[in-house]
Amino acid sequence: MDKIKSSNDINSDIYYDSVGIRKKVFVDEQNVPTEIEIDKDEDKCTYFVLYSNQQAVATARFQVTSDNGIHIQRVAVLKSFRHQHLGSDLLKYIIDYAQKQNFDYIILGAQDHAQAFYTQLGFKVIGEQYKEAGILHHDMKLSL
User: Where is the N-acetyltransferase domain (predicted)?
Assistant: First the structure.
């Protein structure tokens, strides 16, 4: 049974579970330096973790923007749990959450290899390609 929990407390188990997933995916798999992955915005975000049979397997965070949107960041699914639709389940949950909170849009920086994943959820590419932590990205936006 899958369950999604959220928290904006960086001393919570949810936050620690989120960071654990992020370190495995971004630091260990993608070689993102820890000092880039764990950033100055940690205490400004709301964290979401999807638990499968009580194991933390997927995560994302968001920050509220100054113009009534949210900026989703750090979307990650543990390698052995990919291709089970858990990432899309998590993003759909956050999209629904954002709609219920009356946000106007969602923006995110998608790694180029993941653009099709976000497109299936309704996001559209905006802006030019850029490199972050040595990985090619495009910003993508979903109007709510």
Answer: 2-144
